[in-house]
Specification:
Distance between the termini: 41 Å
CATH class of the largest domain: Mainly Alpha
Helix content: over 70%
Strand content: under 5%
Number of helices: 9
Shape: globular
Structural class: mainly alpha
CATH topology of the largest domain: Serine Threonine Protein Phosphatase 5, Tetratricopeptide repeat
Order of helices and strands: HHHHHHHHH
Radius of gyration: 16 Å
Length: 158
């Protein structure tokens, strides 16, 4: 399955095919084509899972320095920055991810969460809509979109 085929399957009517496509996309996105970079990425994920956020961010910075066109290096650093509550830094890394992989629904969803944390609900809603345009079955994103729209209507949305 190619990336284009997987993206098409996400919006298709076959729920099983969409689930398999999402898994396939994550697998594709985690392969840089450079074994050392892929090893570094896995190491960074393991460090992040141990909650060593500074250590994980440093490893993902090395991934980015070594393979700046590899979108997942940026996406993983965005995740660490989100968990560390560096929302502006995470948004910047999501943008870098999306420059390289415009259909990266993980980066879109994460960027939306950052905007929510900053109280920028209209921007969050726009990004959540983009994520659902790529992967309409993301129920958490659908819920977050409803929350963001509710906050924006209440005037809390910038």
């Amino acid at each position: 399955m190619t990336e284009a085929e997987a993206l098409r399957a996400l919006v298709g009517i076959d729920e099983g095919a969409a689930a398999r496509a999402a898994t396939a996309l994550w697998e594709m996105w985690h392969r840089s084509g450079d074994r050392e970079v892929d090893t570094l990425l896995r190491e960074g994920v393991a460090v992040m899972e141990r909650r060593d956020l500074a250590g994980a961010e440093a490893i993902f910075a090395r991934v980015i320095a070594r393979a700046p066109e590899f979108a997942e290096g940026w996406n993983k650093r965005a995740t660490v920055r989100y968990v560390a509550e560096n929302y502006e830094g995470s948004i910047e890394d999501c943008e870098e991810t999306l420059k390289r992989k415009p259909h990266h629904f993980g980066a879109l969803a994460g960027q939306g969460l950052c905007y929510m944390a900053l109280g920028r609900h209209r921007e969050a809603a726009a990004v959540f809509r983009r994520a659902l345009g790529v992967h309409p079955r993301l129920q958490g994103v659908r819920h977050n979109l409803a929350t963001a729209l509710g906050e924006a209507v209440r005037g809390n949305g910038h």
